[in-house]
Every structure is written in structure tokens, then in C-alpha cells.
Amino acid sequence: MSTQAGYNFGYLDENTKRMIRRALLKAVAIPGHQVPFGAREMPLPYGWGTGGIQVTASVIGPDDVLKVIDQGADDTTNAVSIRRFFHRVAGVATTERTAEASIIQTRHRIPETMLREGQILVYQVPMPEPLFRLEPRVTETKRMHALADYGLMHVRLYEDIARHGHIAISYNYPVMVNGRYLMAPSPIPSFDNPKMDRMPALQLFGAGREKRIYAVPPYTEVRSLDFEDHPFQPIRADAACALCGSRESYLDEVVTDDRGGRIFVCSDTDYCAGRQASRQAEAAE
Amino acid sequence: MIEAPLLEAEGLSLRFGAVTALDGVSLAVWPGEVVAIVGESGSGKTTLLRVLSGLMRPQAGSVRYRDPEGTVREVHGMGEAALRRLHRTDWGFVHQNPRDGLRMGVSAGGNVGERLMAVGARHYGSIREQATAWLRRVEIDPARMDDPPTKFSGGMQQRLQIARTLVTHPRLVFMDEPTGGLDVSVQARLLDLIRALVADLGIAVLLVTHDIAAARLLAHRMLVMRHGQVVEEGLTDRVLDDPQHAYTQLLVASVLAA
Fold this sequence. Notes:
The structure holds 2 protein chains of 2 kinds. Helices cover about 30% and strands about 20% of the residues of chain A. Chain A is of the alpha/beta class. By secondary structure, chain B is α/β, with parallel strands linked by helices. Helix content of chain B is about 40%, strand content about 25%. Chain B is built from 10 helices and 10 strands. Chain B has a 6-stranded mixed sheet, sandwiched between helices. In chain B, helix 5 packs across helix 6 (about 155-165). At the A-B interface, helix 5 of A face helix 2, helix 4 and helix 5 of B.
């Protein structure tokens, strides 16, 4: 099955995959709860997606179609190399189209195209603990999770409003999963948070350095924390995409020259390319 | 109202190796009453406070607490979640060092609001309103609400800690040397403030101190501890004016008159 001789299918050995799958099952059974697992050394540095790549390696099968995105783009270094990695060690088909993929490994974004049942979204997570900047002791954060004692996170939101007049968290915005566990959604923009709520696809989170796995099963409630009089507001640049004209998608600001020229373009390259193609088709008619 | 004690301890004993910290201590605190525990350093005062408040487990004896519904509960028998909840709602703990009781990186308003948010307040405007009212009550200028406690003086930090503790209207507050480490004039102001608040709100206070003057000013009743035992107990004025036990006599005689 493997195209590269000397490697097991999907790079990891079967016992490791079994261990990770066990952690995944537990994570799915307790939505939002961080399950420890024995993360392996992977052939890429920590912070480049070692957690996500191990989760993907454990759930991927020969019939899967893999898409990898980094900051929404399919053509950045990290996305290209992880996609090529799985093509070599698992021989699976890869794609850049969200709708065609059965597994999507992502860093920092959720695709604009609505995901459907049967798809799996794998997040790369640098820091799985949402409370880590507020409470330095891991023993204490564990206890806080166990007792659902999350007042401290609201203190942080309170401080933001007192200082800035609004909640100034633009990415990795804390969420409550299934009304029970506080969860870090990985550094996706708060713009993407509403997409996590009752998503038909399975969402898996892997943190390689911190050795934690957590999950949100399909159709699970994911609520962004807020105050009654300061409701959660996703942040989006107030502009249209310079390439496809979208006013709904999440935008990147790109510097175009050294004289202050800059444009806003969709961060999701697949979504943007799809819209451009359909526009051209319309123009040709 | 005064039909049953709020907190009742019986036969508390605790040893740290060869050291006896508590040796058969029994006491009761009734609603709205201020009880002082005095004694020299190492006599087991702070340990007693920690055991009574459920932070430490005694080797023998029991602590019973009557909740607002009137049910009597075993403090060391309740779960950790229930105990935590109790500590944030019906109980309060004022530490000697305000740094132990405050979040130093969080603004004064956030410090006061934390207890409210911990018990489920989710309306920013009303949290802020209550925080403002409490800061005013402990004589901190509400204009400094968004400053962190690190920018406050020692006395202000202690007052902030008191505001933070009282914001959920507890019925019982444990105070561990609340005036320790403050200079005399600041101490006097803080004592005045505590006395006024306690009288206004009808809070029961269990006060640990080695400062006899503070105890006389605040407390209705007094317990004198030595080597982990309560050697004398009675109304504050009776104990201080007519000490019976030799150790109490020594303690009272050692107070410097200004």
C-alpha cells in the first residue's frame, strides 16, 4: 500500500495509531475534554503541526482524500509539505478542493465552504489549554476543568472590555463545548468560531508538543464566551476580496509593493479560486 | 436568628510529625458574631483557621456548618466543588498578605468582579456597577478601578481584598491577621472599616490575630490558644480585663501601652 518502502502505512506504527485512536475515541466521547496521549517524534519541528499530523496519520485510510491548509491557503510551505508527506507515506489521493476532501488538516482556519457529514477536520494546536495564561499551574487548571470552574476566563474578558471597550481577542477565542468544557479552538480567527457550532463534520484537535488530543463530535453545540451586554462579535476586515469580490469570506491583508500598496484577498484560496472560476464562466457566456 | 451556631467544631486534632498543631479544639460561631483567636506565633491559630475553612483536613474531630437553607453539613465531608462554591458565596477568606487573596495582574474592578463571575454573573454593566459600589464602600476611589493592585498601597490592597471578599454577601468571613504588615495609622483605619462593615452587614467573623488591641476593638468573644489548645474562652472584655489562665495573664501584661 505504502508508496515509500520501509515505512508503515501513514508513517506511524500500528501500535502508536491504536494508542492515538483510543485517545480520539475518548475525546469524542467527552466533547472538549483534553485527553493526554504519547505524542511521537515526527519528521517536522514542534509548532509545524506534529499533533495534527499524528491525528491525521491515525485516522487516514487508503481511500481517503486529503486536503491540507495553512492559514487558509493550500499552496503554503507547510500545507504543501504535509500533503506531499502523506502522499508519500500513505499513497493517498490529495486535493485542494474542500468539497472533495474526506480529511482536511488545518492550521489557523476553517474552510469557507460548509463542511458536510462524513468529513473530518483535523486542527493543529499549539496550546490546548485555554486557561494557561491565566493560571500557570497545570494541576490547578485540571481541577478547574473538573469542577467546570471557568469564572477566571470571564475575568479575562472583563479586563478586555474595561481596557479596550470590547473583547479584544481576535483569534483562539475561548469556547464552551456542549455546555460543559472550556476549549481553545486553536488559533483560528474568531470569525471562524460560529462555523464550529453544530458542524456536521467531525472536528479533531491534536497538540503534539503538549501531548493532548480533544474533539468536537458532529452537531455539538460550541458557544463563544461573552457577556450579556457585550455579545460575541466575530472580527472581519471591512473590505471585499480584490480577486473574487467576496464580502463574506475572511480576508488577508497583502502588501503588494514597497510604496504602501496593499490589497485584501480571501485567506481561503480554494474558495477564492472557485469564485473566480465561476465568475469567468459567467463572463464567457 | 440566634438559634443555632453557623459553624461548630468539635475535638479538632492535628499533628505535624512531632509537633502538635491542634489538640482537641472545640468552638462555635453564631450568626453575626465576631470571634477572635489570639495566641503567640506557632500556637496553631492559622492552622485552626485552615482546618475550619476546609482547606486542611484534621486527623480527628469534625467541623459542621449550617448553610443558608438551615441544613447542617459536615465541612470535610462535602465534595471539593461544593466547598469551592461555599468559599465563593457564603464564606470569605481575608489573607494576611493581600497578594495571596488578590490577582495582582488583574484590575481592581476585575478582582472584585471575579467572585461574581465565578458564581455566574454574565452582565458586564451590573458587575461593574457592583464593583464600583464596593470600591466606594471600602474607600477606594472608583476612578482607580481599572488600575492593577500592584499600583495600590498596602492598606488599599487590603481594603480591596475585603471588597472582593464581601461582594457576594458572605455570612461568615475568616480573617487571618488582616492588619498584619500595615503601619499603625493605616491599621486603625482598616479596623474602623472592618468594624463598620461587619456591623452593617451582620457578618460573622472568625478573626485570627496576635494583636490584642485589634481583637478588643473588633471581637465580641475571644479564644486564647497555646500549644494547639484553647486555654481560655469568654467575652472579649472579660478575658482581657480579668484573665484567668496564666498564659492569658502573660499575654495581656505584655501589651505595650502607648
